[in-house]
Amino acid sequence: MSSMSRRHLMLVATGIAAAVVAPRLAFAQAAAPATPTAGNAPFILPPLTYPVTAFEPHIDAKTMEIHHDRHHAAYVANMNNFAKDTPVIGEKPLVEVLGNLNSVPDAIRTGVRNNLGGHANHTMFWQIMGPNGGKPEGDVLAAIDRDLGGLEKFQTDFNAAGGRQFGSGWVFVIVDKDGKLSIETRPNQDNPIMDGKRALMGNDVWEHAYYLTYQNRRADYLKAWWNTVNWTKVGERYAAAKAGTLAV
Amino acid sequence: MTFTLPNLPYAYDALAPHMSKETLEFHHDKHHQAYVTNGNNLLKGTEFEGKSLEEIVKGSFGKNAALFNNAGQHYNHLHFWNWMKPNGGGDKLPGRLEKKITEDLGGLEKFKTDFAAAGVGQFGSGWAWLSVKNGKLEISKTANGESPLVHGATPILGVDVWEHSYYIDYRNRRPDYLKAFVDHLVNWEYVDEQFGKAV
Ligand SMILES: [Fe+2]
Ligand SMILES: [Fe+2]
C-alpha cells in the first residue's frame, strides 16, 4: 500500500474503538465505501492508524511497512481466496470461524487456521499499539496487580515467555470472562480463540517482527516493544472482553 | 560429546549476492552459536552426555524439547553450511544422484520445483528436505528444529526457512530465496556424499 492510499484510508477509517466492539470486524470494515476490495472479498486489511515511523527507534519504519503491507496483507489475501470457494468463512464472525475450525472443510482447514489466525493476531497487534501509549490504569491495572504480580513482574514474565517460544509464534495475555489474566504462548499464527480463550494483548515473536533492527536479539525486542503499547486500547479491550464483545 | 561450532567452509561474503555476508555473520556467529551454547548447557547431566549428535537428536525428540530444539538445530546447521557453496546449484549433478532423482522424483526440474514448494509450504519456522527413506528419495518439510532424522529417514539436502535465513536479503519473499538456493547455492557434491552414506 502506498503512503498516499494509506493516508486516504486513515481518513475514512472509523477508528479502533469502534472495531473493538463491532461484532463482525471484517464486515464493519468491508462496508466502508473507500475500501478498494469490498464486495466479494470479505476480509479487509485494517489500515494502520499511525504512521509507520511512529515507533522509531523501537520498531523501525521498514519493519512496520513490510509487516503490515506484506505479511498481514498476505494473510488477508489468502483468506479472500479461500472465501471465493467457501463464502461461509467470510460471512460468519471471525470468532465463530476460528473457534470452530473443525467445521471448516478439510481441504482448507489448515489454511484457514494459519491465515485467519494471522489476520486475527495482527489485527489485535496493530490495535493495541500506538504512540504516546501511557500506562496501565483502572481495571486492567488492578487485574495485572491481582493476577500477574504487578506491572514489573508481568512484563518480566511476558518477555521470558516470549523468549522461550521456540521458532515463530506469539506471547499473549489471556483474559477470561471474569477478567482474570494469564500469560500463554502459541506457535505460528495460532490464536487463543482456537481453544475457546481470548487474547487481551499479545506480542509477535516471529523473526519478521524484529529482524531488521534486532536480528537474533529477540530479548531486546521484547523489552523495547513495551514502549509501543497503547494502554488506552488495552483498557478498552479489557472492558470489551468482560462484556463479551471482543471482536478479534 | 560436546557441541562445537565449526568455521564456515567458505568466506562470509562467498555466497553473495544470493546470501549476504551480513546474513551469514548473524546466522553462523549468533544463531548457530546460540544452539551450540544452549545445547551444551542443556546436555549436562542428562542421559545423552557422551552420545553422538545423531543419537542425541533422535533420543531427545519428544522427550526433552529444549535439548532437542538446540541439538536438532546444531545438526541441521552443521550440514546446512556444507549444503551450500559459491557458484553452486546448476544442472550438473553427480551421475548416480541425478539418476536417482529422475527415478524417484521425476527429474531435476521437477525436484527443484517440488523442493522449493515444500519450503514455501512450511508455515512458520522450519526446513525443507531431500532425504533417503527405505532406499528411496523423498521431499519433506519440518517445523523448527525437526529433521527427517527423527522420522526414520536420512537427510541429504536441507534448506533453512526460518526467517533469519533470508530476511535481511529477501524480506518476506521466501520463494525468491528458495529459487536462489536451488539455482545458485546447492553444493551437489556434498549432497552426493551424504547420499552415498545413506544408501
Ligand atoms: Fe507478524
Ligand atoms: Fe537457521
Label the CATH architecture of the largest domain in chain B.
3-Layer(bab) Sandwich
Largest sheet of chain A: 3 strands, antiparallel
The percent of residues in helical segments of chain A reads 40-55%
Give the N-terminus to C-terminus distance of chain B in angstroms. Answer: 26 Å
Number of helices of chain B: 8
Give the C-alpha Rg of chain B. Answer: 16 Å
Under CATH, the homologous superfamily of the largest domain in chain B reads Iron/manganese superoxide dismutase, C-terminal domain
pLDDT < 50 stretches of chain B? none
Pfam families (chain B): Sod_Fe_C, Sod_Fe_N
Protein name (chain B): Superoxide dismutase
EC number (chain B): 1.15.1.1
Catalytic activity (chain B): 2 superoxide + 2 H(+) = H2O2 + O2
Folded structure, characterized:
The complex is a heterodimer of chains A (248) and B (199). Chain A has a three-stranded antiparallel β-sheet with strand order 2-1-3, with helices on both faces. In chain A, 52% of the residues lie in helices and 8% in strands. In chain A, helix 9 packs antiparallel against helix 11. Chain A is globular, with a radius of gyration of 17 Å. The two termini of chain A are 23 Å apart. With 248 residues, chain A is mainly alpha-helical. Chain A has helices spanning 3-12, 16-21, 25-30, 61-85, 88-91, 94-99, 106-127, 138-148, 151-164, 211-214, 218-225, 231-243; strands spanning 169-175, 181-187, 199-204. Chain A has twelve helices and three strands, in the order αααααααααβββααα. With 199 residues, chain B is mainly alpha-helical. Chain B has two domains: 19-81, Fe,Mn superoxide dismutase (SOD) domain (Helix Hairpins, Orthogonal Bundle), CATH 1.10.287; 93-196, minor pseudopilin epsh fold, CATH 3.55.40.20. Chain B has eight helices and three strands. Chain B has a three-stranded antiparallel β-sheet. The mean pLDDT of chain B is 97. The interface between A and B is medium-sized, with 20 and 21 residues. The complex binds fe (ii) ion (2 copies). Residues 67, 71, 122, 204, 206, 208-209 of chain A line the site of one fe (ii) ion.
